[in-house]
Amino acid sequence: MLYLIGGASRGGKTTVASRMLQVHKVPFFAIDWMTWGLQHGAPTLGIASDGNPAEKAGQLWPVLRPMLEVILQHAGEYLVEGDALLPQYAAELRRDFKDRVRICFLGFAETSVERKLREIRTYASPNDWTNNWRDEELASSVEFSMGFSRLLAEQCTQHGIRFFDTSSQFDSTVRSAVAYLRRDINGDAPSGP
User: What domains lie within the chain, and their CATH numbers?
Assistant: First the structure.
């Protein structure tokens, strides 16, 4: 089973991936790692790790799609997460691989910039990249991610993909996303956080 998690920056993707690893032993790969590597290892491709996620998704899909196919053929259970993934691409892969792909997207379309900024500052880990940003810079990023979240929610509806809004009740929404991804694996009910 391949699990795909897309969504806005700071929407909860890595938290879901980490819980899938901790509780269900499903390894994961962050698309950001590939983006960073391509930006620095193949700069002529013009892929910027801090670029617009929709544009990155279009640039990366010709590389990411074959990687995902190899994962489907050889890796057993695996999770791939990142903001550079669009519902249309995820739906395309699900169409071609039917019951072997589970998808969800996360974002925060129903909050305020001030509230999200406060949450980020409160819960950021010591090594979090947001610690190096001034509030004004981070607020601008949050505002962009809110708009991107709304776009993703609309696209998820168009493609029949589940969107989880983490604007409120972040922890319980993340638990719901994990349960949704793990539904009926090996005939078992979802368990764990």
Answer: 2-187 (3.40.50.300)
